[in-house]
Each structure stands twice: as C-alpha cells, then as structure tokens.
Amino acid sequence: MTASAPAARPPVSLETIRDAANLLKGVAIRTPMVEVAGRRTFLKCEHLQPIGAFKVRGAHTAMARMDPAARARGIVTSSSGNHGQAVAWAAHRFGVRSVVVMPESAPAVKVAGVRRHGGEVVFAGKTRSPEQNLVAERFVRDEGLILIPPFDHPDVIAGQGTCGLEILEQVPAVATVLVPVGGGGLLAGIATAIKTLAPSVEIVGVEPAGAPKLSAAIAAGRPVVLEDTMSLADGLLTRAIGTLTWALVQPHVRRAVQVTEEEIGSAVGWLFHHQGLRVEPSGAVAVAALLGGRVTVDGPAVAVLSGGNVDQAAFERLITA
C-alpha cells in the first residue's frame, strides 16, 4: 500500500505568519493601539513603523527568508513609495544593494525616503502602471537582482499578517477590522491571521472610490484590471488585486467599501486635529469609512492606519481645508 503524499503547505498560513513575527522581533515595532474616546473604535498606528508604514513587515520578512547568496546579489522592486522605502531600509540592514523603480508621479517625500535609506531610484512611466514592473524585470534579467513584489508574494503577505496577530492581542474583543486596500497584501495577511484565530471577526476592505479594485473583484469573483485609477491616496492606486492576495482574501472578506476624496481628506484632518496623528491619505481611508458612515459597526472596531508619509504642503492643505 502506497502512503499518501503529505498535504501541501499553504503559501501563507497562521504558521508562516507566526514565523514572520519571530523574524521581525527587534526590527518592526509593536505599534500602539489608540482608543478613540466615546466611539468604541481603536486605531492601529502602523504609520509609526520604521519608514513610516506597515510595509517594513513584509519587505524585511521576504529578505530574511532569502538564501543569503541570492540576497547578496541585490534586491529590486517596483513601488509608488512605501514598499520601496521598506525594501531600501531592509536592504540597508542586510548590507545589500536595492533598486526601486518608481513612477514619475511618486510623491517627493517617498522618493526622498528611498534615497535616504540607500536605495537607487529609477523612474519609469508618469503614473503607476505595468511599465515599472517591466523595468524591474529587466534588472532581474540583466543584473541578477532578486525581485520582491510590493504585495503578491507569500513572504511579503506573511509579514503583513503579523499586524493581524497584534490586533487580536491588543483588542481581544474586536468585532470589525477595517483595512486599507491597494494590491491586497495587508488585507490578505491580516485576514488570514485573524480569521484563523477568530472566525467571527468581520474584515472590511476600504478603498478610494477612484480605485475600486477589490469591489470589482468581489463582484466578478476574480481579480479585475481597472482601466485607470485616481485618488489622493497615492499608495492605493494599484489597478488590480494580486492573484495570490485574492486567493487569500476571497474566503475571508465579504465586504469592500469605497470612500470619496472629500471623506479621505476629512479623515486626515480629523486624525490630526482630534488625535494628534499625522497620517497620509492612503493610511486614513479606514477612518474615512467610519467617519463617513460607510461602515456601521456592532462592537469594538479597529481601523488600521497604514502609513504616514505625506508631502508637507499636501498635508497642510488637507488639515486646513
């Protein structure tokens, strides 16, 4: 009698997320959870991570799990900003080269952040588009660099999922978690961690009305490539949910909500004036959904503040509007 083959290990699981949490000790910080008085709402302050965004979790995890000889060849990625900063920051810690391919429209503060952490910036295309991916792939082919995608990668997703572990530890009675959605890496990681440990918790994806890629995927039952995306939430302009992120999101996330530009701007201002938090538009969309009444929660809710890297002039316009 032939023994059956062992079941394949899923690419992202509670086990891989917990392993990522061990790899991130002393690297990513356990970000604070701020309670909003009178609202039964908590703010998960990922904008306080090194490089100012949650992306450090996934970038460092992916790099830490690489074969050292491969990692030594250098890293390349495409990014509109925060993932690129995280890759440059993590590569500097490992002492290896990093190249970040960015659109010409990338915010100056994020371009400067990549360079400050030692990354080489290469511009391709005026806006976020497949052109950046093609240029990144040329660095892989021609110079042997290792590609770390911004979201559609199991180690990146596992790293982002460590945020979900912390949410459950910090707010054990949480009923609803609202997560900003770009390519879906943060949503996929948080959903996998939380729904495995606490299946009754609702996970809600929040996206700009001008970039409704998750809403389109839920409606179609598969990732849909949008013709164009537009929003002041520059970190959420990906035109489609990733293939792997969608496979992980679909079983756990039943609802996506969209927020308007006005709601996003108001949320940035509210976070600053009422909570003393400097959060970028992409990082404020979960709060925008609550303030705008897009989501009504029954029980404690956690809104993830995913990033805080915003140009000073743009930030001042938002908080004085």
Summarize the structure in words.
It is a single chain. The protein is an alpha/beta fold. The chain has two domains: 14-54 and 153-320, Rossmann fold, CATH 3.40.50; 55-147, Rossmann fold (3-Layer(aba) Sandwich). Helices cover 42% and strands 14% of the residues. It is built from 13 helices and ten strands. The strands form two sheets. The protein has a six-stranded mixed β-sheet with strand order 1-2-10-7-8-9, with helices on both faces. β7 (176-180), α8 and β8 (202-208) form a beta-alpha-beta unit. α1 crosses α7 and α2 packs parallel to α4. The radius of gyration is 19 Å and the shape is globular. The mean pLDDT is 95.
What is this structure's SSE topology?
Elements: H1 14-23, E1 33-36, E2 41-45, H2 55-64, H3 68-71, E3 75-78, H4 82-94, E4 98-102, H5 108-116, E5 120-123, H6 130-143, E6 146-147, H7 154-170, E7 176-180, H8 185-197, E8 202-208, H9 213-220, H10 243-249, E9 255-259, H11 261-275, H12 285-291, E10 301-305, H13 312-320
Parallel strand pairs: 2-10, 3-4, 3-6, 4-5, 7-8, 7-10, 8-9
Antiparallel strand pairs: 1-2
Helix pairs in contact: 1-7, 2-4, 2-7, 4-5, 7-8, 8-10, 11-12, 11-13
